[in-house]
Amino acid sequence: MTLPRTPSFRLDGKRALVTGASSGIGRACAVALGEAGAEVTLAARKMAPLTELMEEMTAAGMTARALPLDVANVTDMQATLATEQETNGPFDVLVNSAGLARHSAALDTTPEDFDSVATLNLKGAYFLTQAVAKALIAEGRPGSLINISSQMAKVGGIDRAVYCATKHAVEGFTKSMAIEWGKAGIRVNTICPTFVRTPLTQPTFDNPDRRAWIEEKIKLGRVGEVEDMMGGVVFLASDAAAMITGTALMIDGGWTAE
To answer: Which of 50, 117, 212, 230 has the most crowded Cβ, counting Cβ within 10 A?
Structure first.
């Protein structure tokens, strides 16, 4: 009897686009895909940190390039990606890690804060995913499209009504896109992290009451690190996850288990 063989976790020959790549989870995902052999296009609004990351990845033997991109500016984003993909071909892998949070009590939410968060987290994510899928479908190629969502897409949180609303919505369009594009071989999934230590989240961890609340909710008893995201993104991007679409990979330390 012939033994089954584990599908490859390698991404050699694949083109990957990572938005929000200049810091935090996006940066870690970019490195993970590069380590797995992908040619990684690093995208964010600010070029300086992208260039620094590109140089570090290249020095480590990976293939990376930088692309200035503002996901919240849908018109410019679509035009940039259309030109990029016409020139260099579709992206086989998308990791959308661009995101924004403006936390406040629901009674204090302003229309301006609502629009800022929803424009990037929902509208930008939707049309970014669409732009990558269009190029794949036009050439009859499969792909793996991954949106970095949140454990807050599954639960509620104090002072996080707008953020939770956008991430719940991301889960919704992910499922619908997965259904629509499945026969084209395009998989669409999310990764839902718990609180992850990054420069942007450090003020939350510096608050003793908030940190105690977080650590009590995370069943593994520690906060997330960016390295905790790296294996999951390679898995979903690779052939090892060839039968996984329309779902969420919870990297939440058990927060949503109850």
So the answer is: 50
Going along the chain from its start, the domains and CATH numbers come out as: 15-257 (3.40.50.720)
Catalytic residues: 163
Q: What percent of the chain has pLDDT over 70?
A: 100
> CA of 129: how far to CAs of 62, 121, 190, 207, in Å?
25, 12, 12, 35
> What confidence tens digit (pLDDT) does each residue in 8-29 have?
999 999 999 999 999 999 999 9
At 149-160, the pLDDT tens digits run 999 999 998 889
Q: Please report, for residues 73, 102, 118, 143, 254, the alpha-carbon distance to residue 161 in angstroms, rounded to integers and kept in the order given.
A: 23, 10, 11, 32, 21
